[in-house]
Amino acid sequence: MKIVFAGTPEFAAQAMRAIESAGHQIVLALTQPDRRAGRGMHLQASPVKVFAQEKNIPVLQPETLKLDHADLQKRAAAQEAYQYLSDIDFDAMVVVAYGLILPQDVLDLASRDGRYGCFNIHASLLPRWRGAAPIQRAIESGDERTGVSIMQMDAGLDTGDTVLVGALKITPHETSASLHDRLASLGAELMVKTLDDLDKGIAILKTPQPSVGITYAEKILKNEAEINWQLSATEIDRHIRAFNPFPGSTSSLQGEQLKFWNSCLPSKAPEHQDTVPGQIVGLSGDGVFVQCGVGVIEVLEMQKPGGKRIAASACISGGVSTNSLMRFEKLTNKLGDAHV
């Protein structure tokens, strides 16, 4: 089949590679404009663009697809993209984490002249977690399972009929990074199966989404990163794992802003009287026990400003990893009662 592919991050690029490897022809890639990133703030192409260039696939990068956009330059780029889509021969569109809303004009174009329309890989079991950040919000909310929905797109926000669904269990130590990779692999597999079935003339079953159980995964904002130690250990553990790799959970120790990358709920934690939320109450191998509003969390991986991600105990002790509680007590006495 001839496919127009619209996507931007690595999650999308993995599906794109799978579609191409399965023998389908990608005739156009739509992706976000290059963005400045890294320490040098150089322009960087998206993973989708990088793969498209490797395979000599034409690439368009409009900032919007709205044909009536108020900005004349953006409107011209949108009209150019629409005209390109109108002129080329394709069978379906696949949209994966593109980052732009597809207006009705584009949706109609993808269904015109016997085409199959637009299909989306969405990283949740719709209608749960429609929206921008379904992976992070599933972990943050303590969901026990999630998955991928292949959806026939309509003009709503992730409201289209589902055509194929696959579920995964969220493990107790899952981070958004690890869950992202598992869902990307599953999504690529399900999307290829959908296209293969269409290519073989196998009818796909379109199932309207239920009207109950709808939730929205709001975009992750950097100001959500700060840890509220008054919350329970369970809630804080979910927060830390959900915000790995972006934007990273943050807190401060003696005025120094630290990032928290990994954690768990310990089977046995030290018991201390008169501790307050945010107080460090012990070391555990490479980890650090921290008092929460309810319970104790074991922080496993932290990062100082400008430093690397290292074991939490090494980070707290200034780079000297030790299992000695005596060493830890000397450290906390030196700092005062250490809080994060």
Short characterization:
Helix content is 30%, strand content 25%.
What can you tell me about this protein's structure?
With about 350 residues, the protein is of the alpha/beta class. The chain is built from nine helices and 17 strands. It has a seven-stranded mixed beta sheet with strand order 5-2-1-6-7-9-10. Strands 12, 13, 14, 15, 16 and 17 form a six-stranded antiparallel beta sheet that branches. It has a two-stranded antiparallel sheet with strand order 3-4. The longest helix has 24 residues, at about 175-200. The chain starts with a strand and ends in a 5-residue tail after the last helix.
Gyration radius over CA:
24 Å
Give the termini distance in whole angstroms. 55 Å
Total DSSP helices: 9
Strand order of the largest sheet: 5-2-1-6-7-9-10
* Helix content percent band: 25-40%
Major β-sheet profile? 7 strands, mixed
User: Outline, from the CA principal axes?
Assistant: elongated
Order of helices and strands: EHEEEHEHEHEEHEEHEHEEEEEEHH
Range of strand content: 25-35%
Number of strands: 17
In round numbers, the mean pLDDT is 91
Give the low-confidence spans. Answer: 319-336
Structural class: alpha/beta
Based on the structure, what is the oligomeric state of the protein chains? single chain
